[in-house]
Q: What sequence folds into this?
């Protein structure tokens, strides 16, 4: 069934967005930091995963390597730059993280070269799976969806059932209190940033076999990620999941079906161009509507 | 006063640039300087609301692009002698600067009125995001219009015309741009020092207080937003002329980001600062690019360091202040 | 390499002070091409092909010293436009070349040629510039965009396919591609889809394709786009049931390297193949392999032929290469041994040449193209009649 296949495509895109958005919303919600460099972390994850996978012939190893390397980069950036930005206003944060993007992009070009890298999914995922009789669907995309679900469950457990999760929730709303109670808030921030970075790295690593791995790939997904966290509610991981799925499905379904609708009245090339542009606009219209109607997003930070 | 000294010497230097460039047999400097002035104008207009009104608009590139497209569309229709489709009357466009440029400002202002009315209902980071959203919508809208080139853009076969001048000649175009930038600077300075400007600054410092004092805060902010957009629109019109090409990427969020960088690097809330910021950023691009292909790896840390340590921007440093205000 | 104005001025001063015999001024060739991003392999191949020819002649073409200025446009129209302006105004290049993508070409070439600079295209061949807006300063050494697709349209019809699904990116070359295919293909069209230039994920398109049940797919997706599509198509399990056809751009050597077995058995049309049997090509293919460690793609051959064309023209005009009119006439004669065999220009300064069909096969441990047959001989583009030049 065509609709089911396109719906799954939307869910898969949604899961990727969720991985990116979860990290970003945590960082934004807890440290009140606008981090434009989140896309660069995604790119680092993709490059490291590809390099390790190609060298070791194991995708699993590549993914792990990618996550760890990106988390390490995250810690480095946090200690060098972010730490000084927490109490600065958003404008300074935008500028500084914009500078980090430029540096990261160029450094990646210098290390890996300007050409794009291409990675294949592991052999056991390079086939199709029949989700319904007579309905094949690429196994790798299913894997991405499953990975997203696993991460979502892990994050929920982390935030609601562990000590660290409690500290995260407390730190988001009552920073001074947490410090007064004797916890090392600066260590907490570093941990949260590293977690966010690892999630971005995972998203990048998973994206590798699907998309071309090239310098600047982070910017494209970054802006969508911001849209997702605004719609979902800053600081809410549940919001990131719901909004991620919403944006992913809306984007994919409109790209899939709008051209057919428009081709009834317009020539093919114009119909496709218009469809592409309208479906791109759709997400921003959605965000603008949410902002005007319910500016804090669908879910409050750590609300139920 | 140091401000006066710096602004006068700046404009004097700019005024004598073309003869010097010709003497050095490198007229390309005039082209570069024109580009810096145009972006400087856009950044200055952005500073009006960013530095004085604390409205961080991440979507100002939309007005830049709109101004450029007004010129592009009018020139395109004039050249091909085609009637503009979406107007209620027949008009085949115009290449006269006196028609195009004010119209560019008007269109930018009108769209800003709509965007501002909706966006100014939000605050802080939400304002940033919603202005971004509107700019992205316009960006994708222009991409989807195949008649005007879509993503590939539109070539302009001729620059705007002003009776008595030839704008295709680079130094004449340069002086026109310089005069416009100078006028806009004087106008903005006047506005900032006027009662209007004071209210705006008051809103930046403490909005509830202004409201209690009885000022219609929303109306002031909206007016400032619209004026800022008009300046940026004019800059867009000039940019279209200089490149003889318009494309949706003028409206991309990265362009908005660049404008913000210019404002902050130069010094926000100073009006002249953003002009310096534009000069700095664009000349860094030119010079660094001549040295190494990987110049951005140098620019990136410069940006980060300047944020961390040189608070207040280049202009304040020149004038002798360390911190913003 | 761009030479900064400061360095240039310093050098000029030194030269004056050291009053040496004035050496012949080199010819400045400005190459704007795509060296980064998903479309980089095309630009890199063109550059490598061109540079090989110059290297073989010890930094000269036609006996004239050559100064190359190679700048990356990143497939961005604005970059290309700005770089072109710089090259014409600041660096004052004598000849310009290099652009890969037709949308960048359409933004740059009309302005540059109108300003009096000669432009030789090693790749992009948009229909407008071959027809209505042809210009004496514009030459195309590769093909007109439609050509390879026209040949595939003919081939697919000859093979008996009746219901073909079409895909191309939404930019001038993409539209030219499907127009060219439809000009020679006689069956039905199961679907006609224009994707976004630079798009990486084709899940939605592949799902729609599957639902349309065509008997074959013709797609034009050069560079990184082709790699992504072919991989995803194979992952979706469609390769066995619905065969893929395309121009060489969808299956060039670079793409095959990245895609591997997922492309085996597909057919594509090209004006060039590394196994073409003529003396110039045998030598070129061997040298290219030796210098760069890979088989030359059609893009590499196009870059090489562009340099050879300039070489032949410079040999005729000698030190007068700054005389645009003289250089133009020498270029139009096209008296050089092209690696694709026969080569001549039509009235619109686009090639009249043969188009072959190739199959993707496994050759030892690599996947590569193999020449299978000829589809057209002495093929001219469909827009030549619209060109009012000469």
A:
């Amino acid at each position: 069934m065509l609709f089911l296949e396109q719906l799954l495509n939307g869910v898969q895109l949604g899961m990727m967005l969720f991985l990116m958005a979860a990290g970003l919303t945590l960082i934004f919600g807890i440290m009140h930091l606008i981090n434009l460099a989140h896309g660069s972390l995604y790119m680092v994850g993709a490059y490291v995963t590809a390099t390790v996978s190609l060298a070791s012939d194991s995708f699993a190893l590549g993914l792990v390597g990618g996550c760890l390397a990106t988390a390490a980069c995250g810690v480095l950036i946090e200690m060098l730059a972010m730490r000084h930005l927490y109490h600065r206003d958003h404008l300074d944060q935008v500028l500084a993280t914009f500078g980090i993007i430029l540096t990261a992009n160029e450094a990646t070009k210098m290390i890996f070269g300007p050409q794009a890298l291409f990675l294949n999914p592991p052999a056991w995922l390079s086939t199709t799976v029949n989700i319904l009789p007579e309905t094949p669907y690429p196994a790798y995309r299913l894997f991405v969806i499953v990975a997203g679900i696993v991460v979502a469950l892990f994050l929920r457990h982390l935030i609601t059932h562990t000590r660290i999760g409690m500290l995260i929730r407390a730190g988001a709303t009552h920073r001074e209190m947490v410090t007064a109670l004797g916890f090392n808030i600066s260590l907490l921030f570093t941990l949260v940033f590293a977690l966010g970075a690892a999630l971005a790295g995972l998203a990048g690593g998973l994206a590798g076999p699907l998309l071309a791995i090239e310098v600047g790939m982070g910017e494209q997904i970054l802006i969508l990620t911001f849209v997702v966290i605004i719609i979902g509610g800053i600081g809410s991981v549940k919001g990131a999941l719901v909004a991620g799925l919403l944006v992913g499905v809306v984007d994919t379904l409109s790209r899939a079906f709008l051209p057919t609708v428009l081709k009834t009245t317009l020539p093919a090339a114009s119909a496709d161009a218009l469809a592409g542009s309208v479906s791109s606009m759709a997400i921003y219209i959605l965000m603008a509507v949410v902002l005007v109607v319910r500016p804090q997003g669908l879910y409050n930070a750590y609300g139920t | 006063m140091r401000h006066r000294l710096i602004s006068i010497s700046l404009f004097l230097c700019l005024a004598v640039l073309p003869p010097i460039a010709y003497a050095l047999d490198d007229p390309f400097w005039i082209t570069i300087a024109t580009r810096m002035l145009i972006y400087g104008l856009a950044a200055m207009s952005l500073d009006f609301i960013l530095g004085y009104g604390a409205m961080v608009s991440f979507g100002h590139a939309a007005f830049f692009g709109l101004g450029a497209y007004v010129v592009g569309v009018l020139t395109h229709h004039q050249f091909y002698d085609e009637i503009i489709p979406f107007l209620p009357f027949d008009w085949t466009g115009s290449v006269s600067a006196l028609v195009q440029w004010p119209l560019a400002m008007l269109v930018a202002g009108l769209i800003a009125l709509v965007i501002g009315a909706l966006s100014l209902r939000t605050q802080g980071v939400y304002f940033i995001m919603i202005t971004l959203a509107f700019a992205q919508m316009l960006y994708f809208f222009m991409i989807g219009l195949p008649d005007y080139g879509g993503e590939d853009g539109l070539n302009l076969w001729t620059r705007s015309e002003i009776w008595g001048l030839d704008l295709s000649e680079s130094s004449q175009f340069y002086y026109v741009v310089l005069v416009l930038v100078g006028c806009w600077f004087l106008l903005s300075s006047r506005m900032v020092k006027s009662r209007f400007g004071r209210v705006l600054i008051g809103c930046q410092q403490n909005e509830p207080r202004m409201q209690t004092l009885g000022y219609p805060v929303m109306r002031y902010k909206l007016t400032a937003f619209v004026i800022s957009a008009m300046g940026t629109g004019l800059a867009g019109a000039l940019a279209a002329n200089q490149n003889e090409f318009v494309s949706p990427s003028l409206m991309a969020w990265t362009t908005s980001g660049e404008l913000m960088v210019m404002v902050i690097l130069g010094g926000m809330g100073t009006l002249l600062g953003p002009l310096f910021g534009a000069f700095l950023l664009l000349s860094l691009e030119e010079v660094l690019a001549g040295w190494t292909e990987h110049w951005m790896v140098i620019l990136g840390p410069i940006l980060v360091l300047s944020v961390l340590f040189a608070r207040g921007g280049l202009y304040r440093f020149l004038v002798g202040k360390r911190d913003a205000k | 390499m761009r030479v900064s104005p400061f360095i240039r001025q310093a050098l000029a001063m030194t030269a004056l002070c050291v009053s040496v015999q004035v050496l012949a001024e080199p010819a400045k060739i400005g190459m704007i091409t795509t060296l980064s991003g998903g479309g980089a392999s095309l630009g890199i191949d063109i550059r490598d092909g061109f540079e090989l020819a110059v290297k073989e002649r010890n930094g000269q073409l036609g006996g004239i010293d050559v100064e190359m200025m190679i700048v990356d446009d990143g497939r961005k129209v604005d970059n290309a436009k700005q770089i072109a302006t710089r090259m014409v105004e600041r660096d004052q290049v004598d000849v310009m070349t290099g652009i890969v993508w037709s949308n960048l070409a359409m933004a740059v070439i009309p302005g540059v040629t109108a300003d009096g600079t000669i432009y030789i295209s090693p790749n992009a061949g948009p229909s407008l510039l071959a027809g209505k807006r042809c210009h004496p300063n514009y030459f195309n050494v590769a093909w007109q965009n439609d050509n390879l697709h026209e040949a595939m349209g003919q081939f697919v019809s000859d093979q008996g396919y009746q219901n073909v699904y079409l895909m191309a990116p939404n930019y001038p070359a993409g539209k030219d591609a499907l127009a060219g295919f439809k000009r020679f293909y006689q069956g039905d069209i199961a679907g006609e889809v224009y994707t976004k230039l630079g798009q990486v994920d084709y899940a939605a398109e592949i799902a729609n394709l599957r639902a349309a049940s065509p008997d074959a797919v013709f797609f034009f997706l050069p560079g990184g786009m082709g790699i992504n599509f072919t991989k995803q198509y194979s992952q979706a399990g469609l390769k066995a049931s619905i065969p893929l056809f395309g121009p060489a751009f969808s299956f060039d050597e670079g793409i095959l390297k990245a895609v591997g077995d997922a492309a085996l058995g597909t057919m594509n049309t090209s004006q060039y193949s590394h196994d073409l049997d003529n003396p110039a090509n045998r030598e070129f293919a061997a040298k290219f392999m030796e210098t760069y460690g890979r088989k030359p793609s059609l893009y590499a051959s196009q870059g090489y032929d562009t340099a050879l064309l300039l070489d032949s023209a410079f040999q005729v005009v000698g030190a007068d290469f700054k005389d645009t009119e003289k250089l133009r006439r020498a270029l139009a004669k096209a008296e050089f041994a092209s690696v694709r065999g026969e080569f001549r220009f039509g009235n619109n300064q686009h090639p009249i040449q043969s188009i072959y069909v190739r199959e993707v096969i496994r050759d030892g441990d690599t996947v590569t193209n193999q020449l299978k047959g000829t589809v057209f001989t002495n093929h001219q583009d469909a827009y030549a009649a619209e060109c009012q030049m000469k």
Residues 2-319 of chain B form one domain. The interface with chain C takes residues 24, 26-28, 31, 150-153, 155, 243-245, 247, 249, 287, 289-291, 293 of chain B (CB under 8 Å). Chain B has one domain: 2-319. The CA atoms of residues 159 and 168 of chain B lie 6 Å apart.
